[in-house]
């Protein structure tokens, strides 16, 4: 069986966690800014992403605390192929319990936020909306089931959750099997959620290049799946092959490290599909500066601008159905002629649509009457 390579660079891990924290805060702020500049309104997906951010920040705080106290990158003395209990092992067990209970909410909320975003963008399909709600229900059940299983893994004997690893494994539920099932179902659900909009995109009447560009935004979520696979591998190797990997604290470091990476990458992936308006606005602003005139738009920037329009199309269509155009009464033009054909025209003063400062909506109503008219009255 393989012996996993240990992670010993404490300073590097601290820097990584701080950078992750800054990045995830930035992407969520930019997500809300993108909603503001497109005037699309804040939705349930945005508020769920904000809740996921708060739990992820809590997760990062737990990870930082464990690293500062030495539980992350620490080591257990090994005698006769089994780790010797030291105070640092108890500390590691406490942080593991806090981390594993918090991560269930992080992963669950991120999945729900992405599903709500899919429903918002592609909600014109009733079948797709139903699929989104089914997946949301499954995700909620999945989150609650693993959260309460982790909280009560030792029943109400709370101190057993941070007992020495030998006592914990014999007195509590089969936590290794629970973690394995959790990691495997996490990967499977991520794969389903990420691939859900792909068939809809390929059915759009768009050039193939644009379809590929749109899919690339969603499929960036495979980075999250990659981190999940790495975490699952660490679970399997370190948990079921103790003879080759007897250092409990070092194994704890690897498993928690990959969970931390997966959670923060998932938080970024959750917000990336919403940031194209910000990229387009930044590119447009750059073109207006003297320096910007020397830099042509790259294909990525062009695709970002095009994707912004495409992703908001279904939202705009939904709003148009809910907000019928209102023709202003003072901008109407009327003429009467012949048998009384009356035509009215005007502009829409609806201001709820995305990008309304760049969109003109018009409606013309034509009605025909057959009333006889006195020629003297004309």
From TrEMBL:
Q: Please state every residue range assigned to the domain named Rhodopsin.
A: 30-279
**Keyword Membrane listed:** yes
Q: Where in the cell is it found?
A: Membrane
- List the membrane topology term(s): Multi-pass membrane protein
**Main location per the UniProt record:** membrane
One family from Pfam that matches here is Fung_rhodopsin
- In which family does this protein belong, per the annotation? Belongs to the SAT4 family.
Q: Which InterPro entries match?
A: Rhodopsin_dom_fungi (IPR049326), SAT4-like (IPR052337)
One Gene Ontology CC term in the entry: membrane
Keyword tRNA-binding (UniProt):
no
Q: What protein name does the entry list?
A: Rhodopsin domain-containing protein
Q: Where are the transmembrane segments?
A: 12-34, 46-68, 130-152, 178-202, 214-236
Protein keywords: Membrane, Transmembrane, Transmembrane helix
Species, as recorded: Xylaria multiplex
